[in-house]
User: Fold this.
Amino acid sequence: MSLLGLQNLTKSFGGLMAVNEVSFDVDEGAIVGLIGPNGAGKTTVFNLITGNHRSDRGTVRFEGNDITNWLTHRIVKLGIARTFQTIRLFQNLSVLENVLAGCHCRMHSGSVSAMLRTPGERREEKKALDRSLEELSFVGLAGQEMQLAKNLSYGNQRLLEIARALATEPRLVILDEPAGGMNEQETAALIGTIRRIQKRGVTTLLIEHDMSLVMKACEKIVVLEYGSKIAEGTPEAIKGDPKVIEAYLGTED
Amino acid sequence: MKNKSVYIYGVIFAVLAVAPFFLNPYWVDVLNNVGLYAILGLSLNLIVGHAGLFNLGHAAFFAVGAYTAAILNTQFAIPVLWLLPVCALTAGLFAAIIARPIIHLRGDYLCIVTIGVGEILRIALTNDLFGITGGPNGIFGISRPTVFGYVIRKPHEFYYLIGTFLMVTIFLFHRLENSRFGRAVNYLREDETAAEGSGINTSHYKLAVFILGAAWAGMAGDIFATKMTIIAPESFSFWESVVMFAIVILGGSGSIPGVLLGAVLFVGLPEVFRDFADARMLIFGAAMVVMMIVRTEGILPQRPRTYALPEAQNAGENS
Assistant:
């Protein structure tokens, strides 16, 4: 069954057609890769799904809901979490508090119960703390809770973003170049993490330039070029697709 | 480390608790002003320090609270302390109405609009708005507060009233800082897009923290009105907003001890150095410039929250 469905999604910035009539489905439990040359519109597609940009045309459906142009925090609450291509952590806050940000949308306490420190509020805080610690050890950042986010290495900052996304208890995580800035070992570990995310029953949609990661981890690949979808299929089919080879390597004449 | 600061705060509290017995009424009144500005500073700290929303018109909410108390007390003889929640409500409502359309503005733009709101309100009050604000002369004859039948009149009596209000404020705001709400406003200060992307309703929290800070300033306005028994528009000038803003920025954005220190430095110190009154602005200006170069986060900056982590994970990084 398809969890996320895009139909004829279109977005232009001024005269530039960034995303042009893109349609594809993400099946529940799958790992789907979105690839394409630089400037193909991959991140814009992500921004349209998560409500960071408003689409000109087309629809985004998630679990049967039409979420086109919803506000981002509502989309997160419904079950889509994301990471950013340019890392967007709360740099001056601790690693732990960055993950607690993800727990926010599953909590309810407001300003008054905080000031009164009601039993319900304490229970909720304790639960969020435990959950955050779990997510940190899930991505392999246990023991670094009280570090400031900006003091982490680049690769670990990416992992922290994933932990924050997972803390929102998503049905779908959208990873924008999760391996960017990682070395080979870190990338290999990341593939393991992505598979473990799948085992938890969370669907993954990712953009990645590291082809070894995409080919190893993804079950389905969607290829964009100049804002349009040029191919879709299994890694093997994509590898042999002449249109994809042309997009990446160019033609001989 | 933690024990040491508890010890220091304990000593300061003990000294302040008995201070009125050793000071003349003038100095007690100076401390009262420090306390009042500390409350105002703490309320503005929620907006400026924690949420990072530049509000240079905080005196407007202070004024709304003070005028609410003055009008309702002089017209309907409602006891001023009963009016505390009413003042919070009117100031909060006023904040909600003006903040709704402007809260999405960033940094300097929001700053300019809040300056404008503060000035518009001050001029409206001077022009006898709705014929109830008394024009430039303001409103006089506001009654003294009574606590269990005991009328509070003298500076040292007000000292304990304001002191109690300040202690309650510190207690509640400290809890608020260390909560889901407190974290949420910090997230939006750090990175609004990331906060929204983590599932935080950023526009809701901006509005909520703005209203809460304004409502608290409204209550401070009530205390101010009854302390002075007479209020006039000139008490709520742009300069007052600047002082509140400077208390937060100089003392330490997002830090309760920082704001308290800021209030002492900005309101208490000028009285100590009365003899140098002519050079006061010069010294302040120079101090501000130096601070902004060497210590942008304020004298006592916000400290990271601590959490009850299992094992010894807190150790080491906490120094």
User: Anything to note?
Assistant: The beta strands of chain A are 2-13, 16-27, 31-35, 57-62, 65-66, 80-82, 172-176, 203-207, 220-225, 228-233. The two ends of chain A are 43 Å apart (CA to CA). DSSP finds ten helices and ten strands in chain A. Chain A touches chain B through 46 residues (CB under 8 Å).
